[in-house]
From TrEMBL, chain A:
GO molecular function: transmembrane transporter activity
Classification via Pfam families: FtsX, MacB_PCD
Domain ABC3 transporter permease C-terminal, chain residue ranges per copy: 314-425
Keyword Membrane applies: yes
Subcellular location: Cell membrane
Name of the protein described by the UniProt record: FtsX-like permease family protein
Bilayer disposition of the protein: Multi-pass membrane protein
Span of domain MacB-like periplasmic core: 20-222
Alphabetized UniProt keyword annotations: Cell membrane, Membrane, Transmembrane, Transmembrane helix
Annotated Gene Ontology cellular component terms: plasma membrane
């Protein structure tokens, strides 16, 4: 019967073209607007490493003075070098890495390419396997390279194209701020969005082109391109010194299972307690361990204006639905006579309800199709904005399906009251008044 | 076929209580052709709506083809209406968007009848009323008489045991009315029970039995052999005028 009702709905469209077009347009406007903002939200709030985001954890300790401490206060987002190196040395997780952003002038001996500034990432060996960084050529470096402060680097595919014309450059030499390093590997287009592991330069831009062992970067005095927060009372000359009371390193661990987070958190608590007992930490143990999604939520990876636009668009969709309810009521109740005849011929109230819900749903699907076109226009408009995330505003298959699901659900919701009213039509009155 | 005993129908609003039917007794046997007459506002249409399960009644008993309908829910009433009853209305009540074939198909679809059987029944019903060649025509393309014939075909397609006709010739000229009446007589001669509400004494005279409804009470003229009893005309001080 549902297929039959679908055919009846199509016939009904032909009978009330203007009213139907108005309803389709109303739903399309609501769907187009909401899907534009939902798509932007979806892109920005997406899981950048879905297969293991629940096993990757960002670590926070609280080395600040006891002054201004209150229970539950959020600890600093980064670690001191001393703590990061201590945790790394203890290696309680299957994988762990510390990291910081940097910048430097890149050059190749004998190349016609003039030196240019590039964003760097100083990190440790586990960074590459932990974040599943794909390699086009070669590989990352080892823990031994970290310890030996090896002059090695991993470069991006884009940089490899620029410096070496895309050939396998492993073993080739590059210079960073005049220091010679050898290429260990070429990353194959890896740029997770949002950039979950470090959002200091933004969640959606600041793509890095050279990865250098942190120990090497410190040894060579490569430029740190991020902020440091020093919490001591004494002025600090070298914020990156081992004992400097400054936080500047992000620290990530990969656990074998998400359920291991409790054990690792306990380990961090014990570490803090030990540091407090040793007199380094003044505050009681105050640690955080957040997986990728929790960390992105905490860092508010989705810009506030996008959240606001999402709410406004959903509000607009509700307004459109309320209008659709009125239009559907007018359309359905204008057919009270036909409803009376159908009831006399054996239609139960439920059958009448189903018939009109199918009609509402069909209008919704048509509105969804037009809404898809409007959403495409809306996303194009978003891409013209100067926002850092603008270029990401594209609809994927999930959003495409959601457009129709949302349109269908919205129209069925809007159809509930009109269809209920239609099934309540008293046949006897209608048949006599025909 | 139709057995109503002491059936009452009261419409209530906040201010008034209107008695449309008062202890109506009526039994129609299988295969009968009964004409129901009465003045405007006497309760004829209310009787027909209750008989056709389009309205519920306030009190009394009503058995349709042996089924007590009083406690049936909407689904059960709809199914019973669909399977046992065919309707013919004064204003035809064909669905204007559907051609004759599709109009006749409406009750059969609610019966979940297979497509092949639906087609056979509709072709047969439309042929029976002389519209076999106009299946693809829309109601607006037909004369009033043809529309009423199409409405009769729609009722016949479901092979109802009981045909309820409400002023079936009220909107037709005398020639078309005669033709429709002959068709109803033919249908009745094949065994279908017909209850027809009419104002037309000539049409009523052609039925096997006449029932007169006044003030919501029925008097069987054939059985009583005379006019309605005085009781039927008695004024009811506590009630408003009955409605149709």
């Amino acid at each position: 019967m549902l297929v039959h009702y679908f055919h009846l709905a199509l016939r009904s469209f032909g009978r009330n073209r203007v009213l139907t077009a108005l309803m389709v347009l109303t739903i399309a406007l609501g769907i187009g607007t909401s899907m534009t903002t939902i798509t932007v939200y979806h892109v920005l709030s997406g899981d950048p490493i879905p297969h293991k985001s629940s096993r990757l954890f960002h670590v926070q300790l609280d080395p600040e003075p006891v002054a201004r401490y209150r229970p539950g206060i959020e600890p600093l987002g980064r670690l001191t070098r001393l703590d990061a190196e201590a945790l790394l040395a203890q290696a309680r997780a299957p994988r762990q890495a510390m990291m910081a952003p940097g910048t430097g002038a890149i050059a190749v001996d004998g190349s016609a390419t003039r030196p240019f500034k590039a964003r760097l990432r100083y990190t440790t060996a586990d960074f590459f396997p932990m974040f599943d960084v794909p390699f086009l050529h070669g590989r990352g470096w080892s823990a031994e390279d970290d310890a030996a402060r090896t002059r090695t680097a991993v470069i991006s595919r884009e940089l490899n194209e620029r410096l070496f014309g895309g050939r396998d450059s492993t073993g080739a030499g590059i210079r960073i701020d005049g220091h010679a390093l050898r290429v260990a590997g070429v990353v194959d287009g890896w740029a997770p969005k949002p950039k979950f592991y470090d959002s200091e330069s933004g969640h959606f831009d600041g793509e890095e082109h050279v990865f250098v062992p942190l120990s090497t970067a410190l040894d060579l005095g490569l430029e740190h391109f991020g902020s440091s927060h020093c919490y001591g009372d004494v002025p600090v000359n070298d914020t990156r010194a081992l004992n400097a009371p400054c936080v500047w390193l992000h620290y990530w661990v990969e656990l074998a299972d998400a359920a291991d987070a409790g054990d690792y958190l306990a380990y961090l608590g014990n570490y803090s307690a030990q540091q407090q007992a040793a007199g380094r930490f003044e505050r009681p143990a105050n640690v955080r361990l957040r997986d990728v999604r929790q960390w992105l939520d905490h860092r508010r990876a989705v810009p506030g204006d996008v959240r606001m636009q999402l709410w406004l668009a959903m509000g607009f969709l509700v307004v459109c639905l309320i209008n659709t309810v009125g239009l559907l009521l007018a359309k359905f109740l204008r057919r009270s006579g036909e409803i009376g005849v159908r009831r006399a011929l054996g239609a139960s109230r439920l059958e009448i309800f189903k018939q009109y819900m199918v009609e509402a749903g069909t209008i919704g699907v048509a509105g969804g199709a037009l809404g898809l076109v409007l959403a495409s226009v809306g996303l194009w408009a978003v891409r013209q904005r100067p926002a850092s995330y603008a270029s990401l505003a594209h609809m994927d298959l999930a959003m495409l399906l959601l457009t129709f699901v949302l349109a269908l659900c919205a129209s069925l919701l809007a159809g509930l009251l009109p269809a209920w009213k239609a099934m309540q039509v008293a046949p006897a009155i209608q048949l006599k008044s025909q | 076929m139709l057995d109503m005993r002491q059936v009452t129908k009261v419409y209530r609003t906040e201010l008034v209580e209107t008695h449309a039917l008062r202890s109506l007794d009526l039994q129609v046997r299988e295969g009968e052709f009964v004409a129901v007459t009465g003045p405007s506002g006497s309760g004829k249409t209310t009787f027909l709506n209750i008989a056709g399960l389009l309205e519920t009644f306030t009190g009394g008993e009503y058995r349709l083809d042996g089924v007590d309908v009083k406690d049936l829910d909407d689904n059960q009433r709809s199914r019973l209406r669909n399977e046992k009853i065919g309707f013919i209305f004064q204003s035809f009540n064909l669905i204007p968007d559907l051609n004759l074939f599709d109009n006749c198909e409406v009750p059969l679809r609610y019966r979940r009848m297979p497509a092949n059987e639906r087609r056979l029944r509709i072709e047969e019903a439309l042929s029976q009323v002389g519209l076999g060649s106009r299946m693809k025509h829309y109601p607006a393309e037909l004369s009033g008489g043809q529309q009423q014939r199409a409405a009769i075909a729609r009722a016949l397609a479901g092979s109802p045991r009981l045909l309820l006709a409400d002023e079936p010739t009220g909107n037709l000229d005398s020639q078309m009315a005669r033709s429709v009446m002959e068709l109803l007589e033919d249908i009745n001669s094949r065994g279908t029970t017909i209850v027809m509400v009419t104002h037309d004494p000539e049409l009523a005279a052609r039925a096997q039995r006449n029932v007169h409804i006044v003030d919501g009470m029925a008097t069987d003229l054939e059985r009583d052999g005379g006019p309605a009893p005085a009781a039927a005309h008695r004024a009811h001080a506590e009630a408003e005028l009955p409605v149709t």
